[in-house]
Amino acid sequence: MLDKGRLGKTYNIGGKNERENLYIAYTICDILDTIQPGEKPYKEQMAFVKDRAGHDFRYAIDASKIENELGWKAEENFESGIQKTIEWYLKEMKE
User: Fold this and answer.
1) Residue 48 structural domain
2) b/e map of 9-47 (b: 16 or more CB within 10 Å)?
3) How far apart are CA 93 and CA 80, in angstroms?
4) Is residue 8 part of a domain?
5) Secondary structure letter of residue 89 according to DSSP
6) How much is the pLDDT for 90?
7) What is the pTM of this model?
């Protein structure tokens, strides 16, 4: 963006990985169950709160502008990226 982007423009960075919010939460739980298991599965520790009911069904970013104008493409998909993110976070929490 620094070299090719247009001054004052905003570029969304995304990887065409639209997912439902529960899929994201369950994926995180499954990964944690594998690499840092607790006393019970993480999914069983989830709680749904009434004040957020129906607000967030999915998460998505339109990255077509950065792809088309700057030729940028994501190198990770959601599954590989979230795995690496969780591993990084857990490592940082230990340090």
Assistant:
1) 19-94
2) eebeebbebeeeeeebeebbbebbeeeeeeeeebeeeee
3) 20
4) no
5) H
6) 96
7) 0.78
In a domain, 2, yes or no: no
Q: How far is CA 50 from the centre of its chain?
A: 23
pLDDT of residue 19: 87
3-class SS at 59?
A: strand
Distance between CA atoms of 23 and 58, rounded to whole angstroms? 9
C-alpha span between 70 and 63 (Å, rounded): 11
Decide if 7 is inside a domain: no
Q: What is the pLDDT of residue 25?
A: 93
Q: Is residue 5 part of a domain?
A: no
Residue 26, pLDDT score: 96
- How many domains in the chain? 1
Per run of 10 residues, the mean pLDDT along the chain (length 95 residues) is 87 86 93 96 91 68 92 92 97 92
Angle at 59 between CA 69 and CA 42, to 5 degrees: 135
